[in-house]
Structures are given as C-alpha cells and as structure tokens.
Design brief:
- This protein is mainly α and 183 residues long.
- It has helices spanning 4-13, 20-43, 50-69, 74-93, 105-122, 126-141, 153-156, and strands spanning 14-15, 18-19.
Length: 183
C-alpha cells in the first residue's frame, strides 16, 4: 500500500522546484527587510508604518514567487496595485493649509519600494533586496541623522534658487525635521 506521503514525496520537500526551507527564508527575508523600512516610517510618523510595510513586502514576495512559474504577469498586478495604494496615501495626506506642499509622496514611494523588495525576495534575489533596503534606509535617514544632514538637498537649495523664490521658506528654522513626508 502506498502512503500519501510517498505519493507526495517531492511536493512535501519543494514548492515549484524550490526547497521549502529556501522558500521560507525568502518569505522571512521579505518580512524582515520591509518591516525595517516600515519601522523607519513609523518612527517618522508616516501614514503607513511597520505592519503595513511588512504586509506589502510579504504579499509581494508571495506574488514574486508565484510569478516564477505560474503567473508571469502577476508582478505587473503588484505594480498597479501598489500604485493605487501609494496614490491613496498621497490623496489622504492632502495639501497642508499653511503650505503648498503635498504630503505623503515619500511614504508612497517607499511603499512602492517595499513591494519591489518583497518581489525580489520572492524571486530569490536576496542580495538585491538587501542592498535596496540599505539604500532606502540611508535615503530616508539622510535628513534626520546628525552626520548625514549635510547631504540633505534642502540645506543647499538656497545656493541654487533665487532669494525671493516663493517655493522656499524664509529661513531654515521654518523647515521642520519632524515632518516625515514634506519631501
């Protein structure tokens, strides 16, 4: 008599030719990397935080994995869906009454990036996902780190724009570092 385990033998050890341990590691990597990005956004008071980013990354990793064999157009669906989610973050943030700046653009871009990191993990491109996460965290922290603050473009804008430009604040004291998405 053949047991169910014997019939399913290869399927118990692998999913679509990928070892279950490797698949588990890919999903955990997506979860961890995108959680880090979301944690930074949470620290800065953004509309989407650690859980949202982790779920976006994990979902994108699953779709990225499935796109390897079964659904090659699935990743296009991720791009479209994340675009709508990002647009919702921007629209929800709206325009501030005291300034002509749109809120939520950085969070929307970071949501898009988290989906890409998750998809890369699902595809098995862990190195790409890791360096992308490191680059994203660097860019998100440039404005907030004391050592990196000199890299912030707003610090140097007055040298390249006419002095009476209405798009610039009167002085650096009006530029708040507490605002997570004014850029």
């Amino acid at each position: 008599m053949v047991t169910m385990a014997a019939e399913l033998g290869p399927h118990l050890l692998a999913v679509h030719g990928i070892a279950r341990a490797d698949l588990t590691f890919r999903m955990l990597a997506a979860l961890g990397l995108t959680y880090l990005i979301g944690f930074e956004r949470e620290l800065r008071g953004a509309a989407a935080g650690d859980r949202t980013f982790a779920l976006i990354g994990l979902g994108s990793a699953v779709i990225g994995f499935l796109a390897l064999n079964n659904a090659p157009n699935a990743l296009a669906g991720v791009v479209t869906g994340i675009g709508f989610l990002g647009a919702g973050v921007i629209i929800h943030g709206g325009v501030r009454p005291d300034e002509s700046m749109i809120r939520g653009v950085t969070t929307a871009a970071t949501i898009y990036l988290a989906a890409a990191v998750g998809a890369a993990c699902g595809q098995g491109e862990l190195y790409l996902a890791t360096i992308t996460t490191a680059g994203a965290l660097f860019m998100l922290e440039v404005r907030h780190g004391k050592v990196l603050r000199w890299l912030d473009g707003r610090r140097w804008a007055h040298r390249f724009v006419a002095p009476n430009d209405p798009d610039l604040p009167d002085d650096e004291t009006t530029q708040s570092n507490d605002d997570p998405d004014s850029h």
